[in-house]
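Box 3.1 A note on notation
Throughout this textbook, protein chains are presented in two layers. The first layer is the amino acid sequence; the second is a token string describing backbone geometry. Keep the layers aligned when reading.
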Amino acid sequence: MNNGNGSGTVPDDFLMEKNEPSELVEYWHVLLGHRWIILGITAAAAVCSLIYLSLLPNLYTGETQILVERVNKAPKSYEEMMIPLSGGDEDYYGTQIAVLTGRKIGQMARSELGLDGVDYKVDARRIRGTRILTVAVKHRHPETAAKIANKYAEVFMRETMRDSFYMAQQMLKWIPEGGDAAKGSPSAPEVTQTDIAESLDYVANDPVIQSLKNEKLAIESQVREMSQRYKSQHPVVKESHERLRRVESEIHEQTAKLVDKLKANVSGQYQITNIKILQEAVPPATPSEPNRVKGFFLSLFLGLGLGVFAVLFVEYANQKVRSEEDLSPSIRLPFLGYVPFVKELVKKKRGKGKKVHLDERSPGFSVVQILKGNSTLSDAITNVRTRVLFSMPYERSKKILVTSAVPDEGKSTVALLLAMSLGSMGERVLLVDADMRRPFLHQYLRVQNVKGLTDFLIGSASLEETIISVGGLPLHAVTAGTRSANPVELLESKRFEEFLNQVSPQFDRIIIDVAPVLFIPDGLIIAKHVDQAVLICGSGMVHKKIVKMVKDRLEAVGRPFLGVVINRADFEYGAYSYRYKYYRYYKSYKNYYKKEEAAVV
């Protein structure tokens, strides 16, 4: 409606910002259009999971808790013995868990319980922030699971304590005991335990030992000097030897003290492992695995995700023509519009409880009745008609060829609908069924296919006998007529050109339905005699490369396509986002003009 100053008011339903759907909305409509596929995959996943989960045996978990106190690691050298031991708890307890679940403990536990060949699962973990380890055993019988868990803890504690005692004994053996001679080969010099002890860095670096050794060196030097000047019985020499013996005795005593101190430090710092069983496992009352409820819902989720992924992958990886967007840039053919699937419209009418009158001679539906009773189909054909009329001037669009790439794309249906729509404008329209191999137009129009195009071309019927006036419809028709064994020869004959020359003055528009042109040459022959050609593509039925091939073939004979009509489009749940947008604006258009009509009334 216009306001007083003549400016138009754009209704809110047509505002692009408001109506432009987001990508999520487009995805939603894609999924909604394939909802039965998604539900089928989800249901299949659920059924498979139920069967699988029902076959799984129940597993019971027995858990035993063990307190493991920190223990210092054994030193690798004498120097490490005196270094305060420290280390990360994570490394230490990780090692303990590896030992607890290792092969040695497992074999001993199996052997002591007599469970060789019995299948079970064992795992251990540390309770976070504590010094407690939990050993968990899973088995089909709860009593056996608890028994194995307790045995693992028992064997682990026993073997750890045994290893600790052994390591402590070995460390003490490394340290020399005293001044006994170490026996070697007869020719080797005697090496005493004192010599070994004095060689330790801990002893050699002691300040007292170093002072005594320096004093010993000085006395030994003095003895050598005195021995050169005096005899061995001289009092000065005797006194020097006495002082040397006293220093050596002090070194020996100090070394013995340091060795005793070293042993005490080793025994004090190398603690015996403190392991205690805090809580023994008891037979569990309920199974821990499998979690059938969780598994079932997880399978539902995975099935749903798989279904969604499959639909989106097939939808957006599909190379078949389904929307206007598929026609560019690879094919580069003008788009003339969408036409809904007529058979689906019949089903929807029946589903809503409306009575649909179908002729018994029809192949299952009446195109004429559906066109009159369905506004969606009527508006779609009107849109196609408008684009056809505005694409070319009248003198270049009088004779229009309608074809498809492959069979069953609905070319005959669209040809009939387009002819009826042009006839409703007051034009004299002739619809010609030139598909001599598989004619259908006479069934849609519910007329007899007695004398038609074939009969005219072979000279057995006149033009007046072949042209039929379709009662109740604004058009005339020429059926295919008698079946011919050589349609190519008939279409290439002069008689076909004469046919077009004779009917052209009588009609404003001539619509010619021809056979699919991918493998049949009929359409290419007829294309030489028409003004324009329209290609019908069944939504999702033909690959883009095939459409491109058909386009190139028609261009080779000098008759490029006027454009493409996408037939069998699903307006309600369009699989492609453009179809959804198209239908959304179409609904806004209808609702807007319904309001305008109500306001006028």
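The mean pLDDT is 78. The domain at 337-571 is CATH 3.40.50.300 (Rossmann fold).
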